[in-house]
Write a structure and sequence with these properties.
about 650 residues; alpha+beta; DNA Primase, Chain A; DNA primase DNAg catalytic core, N-terminal domain; Dna Topoisomerase Vi A Subunit, Chain: A, domain 2; four-stranded antiparallel sheet; 15 strands; globular; magnesium; zinc; transferase; DnaG_bac
């Protein structure tokens, strides 16, 4: 449906975004300025304690400095109510007293039919509820009681029963004057192939209504009472109301519970969801008999940033988890991921709740694994990597999976996490007494103390370089977006630098001049001035001459390159030192001999190409400490000092 020109502008003019958002948040009165329409609150889109969600009533926009959610009143209603664009417009227009334009006749006719179908579905819900309470539902009631569902639970989830008769529902609905095509259109009955009356889709089954986020019944799930039935669970066929790939069981109640802080849990079936909700895990949903789809994943992420996939602890459950990983990898965004809680072998959430209680389930949810660990588990479980070829095959498989991630920052972090896990697998420091036992911590030796001192100096040098990068971007913010991804990769171990980097990453670039104002508002003017006036920072050309884009870009690029080189060298030296803890083998000897020439060239280049900010004693001292560690390693295996080669 198209809207006439100016309709949305008029709607935005009449709508106060502060009032719209105010229905979902608690304003921070200390930070907010009601008179200016400048309001702050904890973000409704992610869990936080501080007020980083900003609403500007005059401009009509919101922005979160934590999760970067942004938009206007229409997008806010869409996200919080989980409705389509036109539905959000309709909601706001009703509140603003504006008449929605008339739909075209065909669209109106289609909407009217959907309304009629929904009414028929509600009539079916009432019929199945009645049948459960009747004599024919005795066995079904006993089954539900055995599963721990009392009458209150049955009422809460509107559970019903379809007797094992061919036209029980059909006759009941026809008795209410409902037309044939509406009953068939709901998927509640099927045409007879023999020319007789249509027959009921669901027979001899416990019935679970499936509702959309707005609460309308759009389908049913039926569990067979006969254990020999070919289909233990049966869903409604797809209809004008129901698309199972875009539907989640218990969507509406789960969304509301997640909004109050509960973890969003994705289980496998209706009974798991019902059992979890009964035990207090109300933010629980389930796909409908199929693997999670891309549409369902998007719906989950609209509810919570990190849904927990709680799957059965068997082979089928793990396979389902692996399918979800392959689906999710290309769709990952900063702050949007999945975690996995694998149930004990042979149990589903319902089983675990009945055997061990809610505490056991909560413990599993608290220990849910990040997706990268399950990806690693899939590629390595039960494998033997005792040859270079097998290790190479593992590397190739993991690279192919990581390449699926579209977001460059997330792809980089996945690569680092896989690298760390690979190191743990192929370089275990084990005690000689048996596999799987980690070596005990040995006393610190003199050489180790020296290495720690050198490491401290290296960390100081890294801190200096990071400070220069941050200061340069602050002074010339027009290049900020070019280096935003690189900024995410800085370690920033120093607390004051970490604070500044975090505030910069929360910045949504509206214009170069606003970065400094944003930082001072977020951290205070003193924190920023302290960085810019550090001796080694204040002398850097782009800090002394702010706004010179070429100098700023060159400085950041070169400083980042030096950080990468120095950190890579430090990692290689550390790795070699660990390998040489015993007797050096041929592989380590060859690695160090090959590295000697490369390192000499790197140090020579660094000494010849120093920028103004690292000419002091501290920079030279760090280079010497690294060089001394490397020389010591070369001498240890009989190659002489790097400087002598």
């Amino acid at each position: 449906m198209s809207l006439p020109p100016g309709f949305l502008d008029e709607l935005r003019t009449r709508t106060s975004i502060v009032q719209v958002v105010g229905r979902k948040v608690m304003w921070d009165t200390r930070k907010s300025n009601q008179g200016k329409g400048d309001m702050w609150a904890p973000c409704p889109f992610h869990q936080e304690k501080t007020a980083s969600f900003h609403v500007d009533d005059r401009k009509g926009y919101y922005y979160c400095f934590g999760c970067h959610a942004k938009g206007d009143a229409i997008s806010f209603v869409r996200e919080t109510e989980n409705v389509e664009f036109m539905e959000a417009v309709r909601i706001l227009a009703g509140e603003a007293g504006m008449q929605m334009p008339e739909r075209d006749p065909q669209a109106q006719e289609k909407a009217d039919r959907r309304t009629q179908l929904a009414e028929v579905m509600e009539a079916a819900v009432r019929h199945f509820r009645l049948m459960l309470k009747a004599g024919a539902g005795a066995a079904a009631r006993d089954y539900l009681a055995g599963r721990g569902l009392d009458e209150a639970a049955q009422e809460r989830f509107e559970i019903g029963f379809a007797p094992d008769t061919w036209q029980g529902l059909w006759d009941a609905l026809k008795g209410k004057g409902i037309e044939d095509d509406l009953i068939l259109g709901c998927g509640l009955a099927k045409p007879s192939q023999k020319g007789g009356k249509p027959y009921d889709t669901f027979r001899g089954r416990i019935m679970y209504p499936i509702r959309d986020p707005r609460g309308r019944c759009i389908a049913f799930g039926g569990r067979a009472m006969d254990p020999n039935d070919n289909a233990k669970y049966l869903n409604s066929p797809e209809t004008e109301l129901f698309d199972k790939s875009r539907t989640l069981y218990n969507h509406g109640p789960a969304r509301e519970a997640a909004g109050k802080g509960q973890s969003l849990v994705v289980a496998e079936g209706y009974m798991d969801v019902i059992a979890l909700a009964q035990a207090g895990f109300c933010a629980s949903v389930a796909p409908l008999g199929t693997a999670v789809t891309e549409h369902q994943l998007a719906m989950l992420w609209r509810i919570a940033d990190e849904p927990i996939i709680a799957l059965d602890g068997d082979t089928a459950g793990l396979r389902a988890a692996h399918r979800v990983i392959d689906l999710a990898l290309p769709l990952l965004e900063a702050g949007k991921s999945l975690r996995f809680a694998i149930m004990p072998e042979g149990k589903d959430p319902d089983d675990l709740l009945r055997s061990d209680g809610a505490g056991a389930v909560q413990k599993l949810l608290d220990q849910a694994l990040p997706m990268v660990q399950l990806l690693w588990h899939r590629e390595t479980e039960g494998q033997n990597f005792d040859s270079p070829e097998r290790k190479a095959a593992l590397d190739k498989a993991l690279r192919e999976k990581i390449k699926l991630i579209r977001d460059p920052s997330i792809r980089s972090h996945y690569g680092q996490a896989i690298k760390d896990l690979r190191w743990q697998l192929f370089n275990p420091r084990r005690q000689g007494g048996g596999a799987g036992r980690w070596k005990k911590q040995e006393p610190v030796r003199a050489s180790t103390k020296s290495s720690l001192l050198a490491a401290s100096r290296e960390e100081n040098q890294v801190e200096l370089r990071e400070a220069v990068i941050l200061a340069t971007l602050i002074r010339t913010p027009s290049i900020f977006e070019e280096f935003e991804t690189a900024l995410e990769g800085l370690s920033c171990a120093a607390p004051h630098l970490s604070q500044i980097r975090g505030a910069m990453l929360r910045y949504d670039p509206h214009g170069p001049k606003e970065l400094f104002d944003h930082l001072t508002a977020d951290l205070g003017e003193e924190a920023v001035e302290k960085l810019l006036t550090l001796p080694h920072v204040a002398l850097v050309p782009p800090v002394r001459r702010p706004g010179d884009i070429d100098i700023a870009r060159m400085t950041v690029t070169e400083t980042l390159a030096k950080l990468v080189t120095e950190q890579g060298l430090a990692a290689e030296i550390s790795e070699a030192e660990q390998d040489l803890a015993g007797v050096a083998d041929e592989a380590v000897t060859w690695r160090l001999s090959e590295a000697a020439e490369a390192r000499n060239k790197a140090w020579k280049s660094q000494n010849e190409d120093r920028t103004e900010y690292d000419k002091g004693d501290n920079g030279a001292q760090v280079s010497r400490s690294e060089k001394e560690r490397f020389d010591a390693l070369l001498e240890q295996i009989g190659f002489g000092k790097a400087s002598d080669r």
